[in-house]
Design a protein that fits this description.
This protein has 659 residues and is mainly beta. It folds into five domains: 121 residues, Immunoglobulin-like (Sandwich), CATH 2.60.40.1280; 150 residues, Sandwich (Immunoglobulin-like), CATH 2.60.40; 92 residues, Immunoglobulins (Immunoglobulin-like, Sandwich); 91 residues, Immunoglobulin-like (Sandwich), CATH 2.60.40; 54 residues. The chain has four helices and 36 strands. The strands form eight sheets. The chain has a seven-stranded mixed β-sheet, with no helix packed on it. Strands 14, 15, 17, 18, 20 and 21 form a six-stranded antiparallel β-sheet that branches. Strand 24 and strand 25 form a beta hairpin. The longest helix is centred in the C-terminal third of the chain and has 29 residues. The radius of gyration is 69 Å and the shape is elongated.
Length: 659
């Protein structure tokens, strides 16, 4: 459980940090993009359509723009290819935005930090291709993946050809690349034009101010049937003419071209020949605008030559066709703030005078469920946010003030031009109730392992916290062998015996103890100990020290016996028969243990324990020359005493050596 709680906490922290990184307070969520509100078209006054080439009409774009920082851009794309022509000059919308048209549409750039706004952009355009009759031409406008389509109604352009016309110049308006397009119609009446010394052939074009000719844009097309049956100009020209196109590009300068030839017999070809003098040409080219501030652009086409009359003298002809293009000018626009504000107050539910700081709220777009901004209440308990784009939102508390429970109440927030400020009043929180930590108890009984009825007191245990390895408590068994502890905080512990009861061995067994809300009482039952084994009596290896034997008395030196006289033959004694019944034998004394000899008399008793029976009639035999036997008795006693002492001493040494 503890591991799960740790991962849960780590997950919450990561989610919080991610939400803070992706939705910083007071900034538009990255998913908030500009959108197209609508696109419309308007035609010249009183018209329901626009004539190709001739008319200028307007496209209107309504853009919902979110907050933008200075320099931030967005691009509106017009479906390609299209035949729309418009001025590429950059124009401003107030102090906040700038619009730069290009070949594919236009770019809107913020000139300063802006709030969410509805931006209106108007772009004057021409339709630069002819149509047949009246056609409905679709146009698709795209912004950030969003697309809106509209229909443009275009009328066919018709130009009646005057019978005296030699040349004619017509402006076509702005091309997609921002240049002005012009067309020169040459000899649509298919006259046989030549040059003479008196009246040389001249063909020239003069480009007006604030523009210059783009030489490589000159394209010439031959027109086989320049006039249609109804007398209008055939604008469906034939194929590209390399000879005429190369010739004019060679003659051209930035300000136009001028070709003069007194012997003119047709325009020269790349192969050295000439084109027919009756050729009709559709010549189109572009001029580059050099001053975006100008609104009127002019050009003039001129030609002269001689034509042969019907059997009469040659006739001089000339044509001069000035042309001008009144630009509808740069685009224009307007912007309107489409933002509102939100405010509320955070307070204690029991006492509204207690204002709560640090509460965090997420303002989410109701449609996308994406977080638009995060709002944190200040020291006065006030949460507020300005410059919120119009729309429907939901306010939800994401972090409660310290010491309070988070509220699960959500608040709708709808901002519009009719409801630009929303005040939610007081939003209250309940205090967090005191946290009661789970505690538990532990009990066990200390018993003899051989006889569990014997309860053991005085055993000492330690209860160690597994997480910290700190000893939480020491438990000692009582007179009944019971060890118990209450109010143990939730956690994992280990119970270990540190001192055994008297007379018992210390147990090395440990016991796991888990305290939790689900397990508050732990009973380990019987915890046994084994008695200490009995030790055998130690033998007394130190023998008793025998008493020192008394030093025997030195017998007196016997007197030198006198020289006996000549012995006489002794009388033989009478032998008196003795009955066996008169002989008494003394029963020897049996000793289970020989005590150390303590005296000379004792030594004699130990060595000689037999004495003559009192009932035996004993008479010594006479010895030759013996006058007295007392000295021999003393000497013999001394010998016996010395022998006994020696024997005792040897036994003592032997016993000592054994130990």
């Amino acid at each position: 459980m503890k591991k799960m709680n740790t991962w849960w906490l780590v997950g919450c922290i990561l989610i919080f940090l991610f939400s803070m990184a992706s939705s910083p307070q007071g900034k538009v969520n990255a998913a908030e993009n500009p959108t197209l509100d609508n696109v419309t078209v308007t035609y010249p006054d009183g018209q329901t359509s626009a004539t190709a080439f001739a008319d200028t009409f307007s496209l209107h774009f309504a853009l919902n723009m979110p907050k933008m920082t200075a320099g931030e851009q967005t691009h509106i794309t017009l479906e390609q290819p299209n035949a729309l022509g418009y001025n590429h000059a950059t124009f401003a919308i107030g102090d906040a935005f700038q619009v730069t048209p290009d070949e594919t549409g236009f770019t809107l750039e913020a000139l300063q930090n802006t709030t969410a706004q509805l931006v209106q952009v108007t772009l004057p355009v021409n339709y630069t291709e002819n149509v047949s009759g009246t056609e409905t031409v679709p146009l698709s406008v795209e912004l950030n993946g969003q697309s809106i389509s509209l229909d443009m109604v275009i009328q066919e352009y018709k130009d009646m050809v005057d019978k005296s016309e030699l040349v004619k110049k017509v402006p076509l308006g702005f091309a997609a690349n921002g240049n002005l397009q012009w067309v020169a119609y040459y000899n649509y009446n298919q006259l046989d034009v030549v040059g003479t010394e008196a009246y040389p052939f001249i063909f020239q074009d003069v480009v007006g101010a604030n523009q210059k000719l783009v030489k490589d844009s000159i394209s010439a097309y031959q027109v086989a049937e320049p006039i249609t049956a109804d007398g209008s100009r055939n604008l469906s020209h034939d194929g590209y003419d390399f000879d005429m196109s190369h010739f004019l590009q060679t003659e051209a300068t930035d300000t136009g071209w001028h070709y003069e030839n007194a012997s003119f017999q047709g325009f020269p070809t790349l192969t050295g020949g000439t084109l027919p003098t009756t050729s009709s040409f559709y010549i189109i080219y572009e001029t580059q605008i050099t001053d975006d501030g100008a609104s009127l652009y002019t050009n003039e086409l001129y030609a002269q030559g001689m034509i042969n009359g019907n059997g009469s003298e040659p006739i001089r002809v000339q044509g001069q066709s000035p042309a001008q293009y009144q630009s509808a000018g740069e685009g224009s626009g307007d912007s309107e703030s489409q933002v509102g504000a939100l405010t509320f107050e955070k307070a204690d539910s029991a006492d509204a005078t207690v204002k709560l700081a640090g509460a965090e709220f997420a303002l989410m777009d109701q449609a996308t469920q994406e977080v638009y901004a995060t709002i944190t209440t200040d020291e006065n308990g006030v949460g507020s946010l300005a410059d919120i784009p119009y729309g429907s939102y939901v306010l939800q508390e994401t972090k409660a003030p310290d010491g309070y429970q988070i509220s699960d109440v959500t608040y709708p927030v709808i901002l519009s031009s009719e409801n630009q400020t929303v005040d939610l009043g007081t939003i209250s929180n309940d205090k967090t109730p005191p946290v009661v930590e789970a505690t538990g108890s532990l009990v066990f009984e200390k018993v003899d392992s051989s006889d569990t009825s014997i309860k053991l007191k005085g055993a000492i245990f330690t209860l160690t916290n597994q997480a910290t390895q700190d000893v939480y408590a020491t438990i000692t068994t009582d007179d009944k062998g019971v060890g118990a502890l209450n109010d143990i905080p939730a956690g994992s512990y280990v119970l270990r015996e540190t001192k055994a009861p008297a007379g018992y061995q210390l147990s090395d067994k440990t016991y796991s103890v888990e305290i939790s809300a689900e397990q508050q009482a732990v009973d380990l039952k019987e915890v046994p100990n084994t008695k200490v084994p009995s030790k055998p009596d130690e033998p007394n290896n130190t023998p008793e020290q025998p008493n020192e034997p008394n030093t025997p008395d030195v017998p007196d030196t016997p007197n030198q016996p006198s020289t006996p006289s000549q012995p006489t033959s002794p009388e033989l004694p009478k032998v008196v028969p003795v009955s066996p019944a008169k002989i008494a034998v003394k029963t020897p004394v049996t000793h289970s243990k020989v005590a150390p000899v303590k005296s000379e008399k004792a030594t004699e008793d130990a060595v000689l324990s037999v004495s003559p029976a009192s009932s035996v009639d004993f008479k010594p035999l006479p010895k030759t020359g013996d006058t007295s036997n007392k000295g021999f008795v003393y000497f013999g006693g001394i010998l016996l005493l010395g022998a006994g002492s020696y024997l005792v001493y040897r036994r003592y040494q032997k016993k000592k050596a054994m130990h």
